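Escalation from tier 1.

The customer reports that the assembly of two entities below gives different structure tokens on two consecutive runs. Tier 1 could not reproduce it. I'm attaching the input and our single run for tier 2 to review.
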Amino acid sequence: MADAPPFSDADLIARVVVHDDRNAFAELVRRHQSAVRASLRKLARGDEGLADDLAQETFLLAYRNLAKFRFDAKFSTWLYRIAHNVFVSDARKMKEVLHDTEDDLSPEIPDSAPPLADSASLRLDLDRAMECLNDAERAVIVQCYYNDLSHDEASQVLGMPLGTVKTHVLKAKEKMKSRMAAWQSAQKEVVTA
Amino acid sequence: MNSPFPHSAQTGKPGQPDEEDWLDQMLREDARKHVDDAGFTASVMTKLPSAKPARMRWQRLLPALLAGVAAWVAIGVLPGGDVFLDGAADLLAADLTSPRVVALLGTLVVFFGVVGAAVSTER
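Tier 1 run:
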């Protein structure tokens, strides 16, 4: 026999708002924790402890403000917006204001960083390549790829004009590709030497 | 020459299947990884503010009831209560400048303000 259909996010939200149903909220957290934590880990440059603290704050804020959720966007998109705001707020506290910087202000990763040897390590290469992105580019990549949002949704979550989102996606990918291509060349040289 | 980054101008979402490049694929593959809960949900739930105990209907009406009793005591029992009755008489006579009318109206405003605030807090 098939399982009973699960409650939708809207059902669970209604139960939390009307009856303060803690089990319903726990189910919402279980459903969305992976995406929220994964994207915050990317934003926090791999600092899992910080990312989880921010994710926890995200869900607590979501709980407090759930009655204000108007269903004009997906619940997940609303959560991502809270998560992004929590991250930016924390970054400001840490004197790392999200800024739309020029390329020369991006964190410098030396091109001579040793390339990783096999394809299984490509993901680590990907993380390293993301290090060359400034905060705005990183945020756009996280929203568009890790949170699977459209450019339009990403622009709403990030509070950026749509054109700026598109530009950041292009520039970010260009930077990552050139960084990863440089490592691949270096790797080939090591192999042939 | 084909642009290596052809996606964004045509579609709302980067990396649609027909225009996906190797970096799109890597990013999407990386994004598909699931982060294990590992106690995260339980940790969030322990941090939620404590639940308000469910209240019976009579408990919700208690503040209004107490305010009503207090008003009855003030007007009907205490020696100075006559001032309110006199104020009401003046009010009916439309003498709005009487200090007693002002006292009465002020008391009523405070009374209903407190009751309203108590009721809205209980909702």
